[in-house]
Amino acid sequence: MITYLKNYWKTAIANPLIVGSLVMFLGTNIHNAGQLLYHYLAINLLSKAHYGDLAALISIFGLLAIVQQSLGLAIVKFIASSKNQAEANNLAKWILFWSIWIAGGTAVLVFMLAPFLTKFLNISQPLAVFLFAPVIFIAFISNSGRALLQGFIKFTQYSISMIIEVAVKIAITVALVYAGYELFGAVVGLLVGSIVGLSIVWFSVKDNLAGNKNPMPKIGPLIRYSLPVLVQSLAVTSMYSMDIILVKHFFRPEPAGAYAALAKFGTIALFAASPITNVMFPLVAKRHSHGEPYHKIFYLSLLFITAISGLVVVLYALFGSVITDVLTHGKYVQESYLLWWFGLYMLLLGGSILFTQFYLSIGRTKVVWLFAAAALLQVLLIWTFHKTLLDVIHASTISAALLLCALSIYFPYHDRGKK
Questions:
Q1: Are 214 and 204 in contact (CB under 8 A)?
Q2: Phi/psi of residue 273, each to 5°?
Q3: pTM of the full structure
Q4: Are 118 and 129 in contact, with CB atoms under 8 Å apart?
């Protein structure tokens, strides 16, 4: 028995999915816990109206980050699938160069649209919206660097950068909000945290960026791959952001703030298991490109995600009011009935993301249009049916359930024509 356990342990630690998932699970969930703590503090330190403002701005940030996210996923795939280290390093140099230009253009766009966003979202401190421009510039470059780390299978450095960034963000935010800067203080916390995070990413990836760039690699395959990934990123971000934005537009500040707070706690069911998907993608992409078996990685990932997210949903269903009372000091307990619905929605969305990432990792890109259709359906349902907050979360849940069903039906056909 002892020999068996030793052999089993050696096999387990030699499995890149298990080791990588463990590192990413611990690191990413420490980061996610920090993100939750940031929002927990913001929920309790800011008024409902000001927290609604902050949540809406962060949702706008997520939508604007779509281009970078789509490139990030393409970066992971093409870096992980590179034939040799020299090819991967040269591609990384060009990717960072392109990322800086994209980040700058997006930041300028945010600065120009700041007056419109302030009016549409009824933001109480307009300066905070203008300050989001440099936040986006720094964060975009940092996230591209993290995609490089993920593609180079540097999961430890990836995790460390996120943990330290969120720790700095929390410290600065708490200090400035206590000093009376409210929403502006929370946004400054985001900016300083992003700067620190970028510094760590740079030191982690600088060895791969050393030396001059070689001739620009062929970017046709990267662009062709990025376009469907852009659609998928737009759809994913829309599905956990547009409901908050539309609620902020259709509802009064107080219920909009309550919805945003419960939605944030609901995302635990999604982000607690997200490291599994992050690890699966480069591993499947690499094995697929080398002609090696890869389905077991997907099956293990699906099992882990279902178990982790399912547990969160069960806890929310059984103890939703208690959890809400403890986390918000009774501030949002009246809306606690929404919590398990948010958990269920995020479970369905997380499963859909896993299936889609799996398909993308093996080059099956057309499935992204299923995600786009679901995101459009969600917006149409919310725009039509928004009498109550429960109507809104029902619309999101129905959209995610239909999406997961469609992606599951496609699975038996994804490798047709292959042995």
A1: no
A2: -105, -5
A3: 0.63
A4: yes
